[in-house]
Write a sequence for this structure.
């Protein structure tokens, strides 16, 4: 009887060893024991928590360097990484950054291609937005996200434009010929306006799939909000009625300046179109659009490639090394978000009104 029991127990042990789930669990436990500083995401990916760093940033502007831990991601297999899920409310409790990133230099076409990714403004909750890959040589120059977070649109270096529906996984090719880059969403997320050829503009209807011509200009540094379309142009900010296209106001920089001194080489606008930023090597310009004013600065300013709600926070648009500034309290955070990989183009902000526009949760 004892021999029978021993044989039975031995058989059960062998069965357990051959069980893939059991083997995977044991391997995961072993990895955790060997690398307690890592948090694994799937079998091949993980992140560590590392302190932010000192960064000289701004233009003769004194900023308090903030030190706290942020995730640093090591992604070898994008296929194993969690995707952005519109039904997961926890992903949208903060504003988010969206960017194009190739996570690997392997020969695997899927892993080495550019894909769209996103993460919260505090560096957490990295998500894979779309499986659609773009070759590094083509690059992704311009990115945008619909106000309802559902649609992602991008233009590659040649101006070929694509829309991805996160809800259905459907991919739509908007332009199959080289064209300029600008794109802009309507406030209700139904239409994507884009420049199909030089000074020729169209709109894509997300409900019908139809493309039709429009009679107003499109710029990427713009926002449709509250029935107004607010656009940062080369020398100022234009406010129009989004329905009639009639001009409501124009806030221009000082016309006594030279063309180079007036030109807004770097520009951004907040999600509600209340504030805008522009700068060049000579000056910085802060636009209070509600008041119709522009403040011109020579020194003591921080450029804003990405501008948050109420101009409280701003960021540089390169997401490999994240740099965030609290423009109210003059604080700066800088950290390396990724261990490796290649970025293409510039990051953008979306879901910008979440958490009342604040980029960090209270107490962090």
């Amino acid at each position: 009887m004892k021999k029978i029991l021993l044989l039975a127990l031995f058989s059960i042990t062998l069965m357990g060893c051959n069980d893939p789930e059991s083997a995977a669990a044991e391997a995961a436990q072993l990895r955790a024991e060997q690398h307690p500083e890592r948090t694994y995401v799937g079998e091949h990916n993980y992140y560590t928590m590392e302190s932010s760093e000192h960064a000289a940033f701004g233009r003769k502007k004194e900023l308090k360097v903030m030190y706290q831990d942020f995730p640093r991601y090591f992604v070898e297999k994008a296929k194993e990484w969690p995707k952005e899920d519109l039904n997961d409310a926890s992903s949208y409790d903060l504003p988010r950054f969206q960017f194009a990133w190739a996570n690997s230099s392997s020969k695997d076409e899927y892993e080495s291609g550019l894909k769209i990714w996103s993460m919260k403004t505090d560096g957490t909750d990295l998500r894979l937005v779309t499986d659609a890959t773009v070759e590094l040589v083509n690059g992704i120059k311009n990115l945008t996200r619909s106000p309802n977070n559902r649609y992602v649109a991008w233009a590659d270096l040649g101006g070929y434009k694509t829309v991805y529906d996160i809800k259905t996984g459907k991919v739509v090719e908007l332009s199959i010929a080289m064209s300029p880059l600008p794109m802009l969403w309507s406030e209700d997320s139904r239409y994507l306006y884009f420049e199909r050829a030089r000074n020729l503009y169209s709109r894509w209807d997300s409900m019908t799939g139809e493309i039709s011509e429009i009679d107003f200009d499109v710029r990427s540094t713009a926002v449709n909000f509250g029935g107004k379309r607010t656009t940062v142009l080369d020398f100022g900010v234009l406010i129009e009625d989004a329905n009639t296209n009639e001009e409501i106001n124009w806030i221009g920089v000082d016309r006594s300046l030279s063309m180079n001194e007036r030109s807004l080489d770097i520009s951004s606008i907040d999600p509600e179109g209340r504030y805008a930023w522009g700068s060049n090597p000579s000056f910085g310009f802060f636009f209070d659009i509600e008041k119709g004013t522009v403040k011109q600065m020579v020194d003591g300013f921080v450029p804003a490639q990405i501008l948050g709600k109420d101009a409280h926070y701003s960021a540089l648009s390169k997401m490999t090394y994240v740099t965030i500034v609290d423009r109210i309290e003059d604080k700066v955070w800088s950290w390396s978000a990724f261990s490796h990989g290649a970025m293409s183009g510039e990051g953008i902000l979306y879901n910008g009104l979440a958490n009342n526009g604040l980029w960090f949760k209270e107490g962090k």
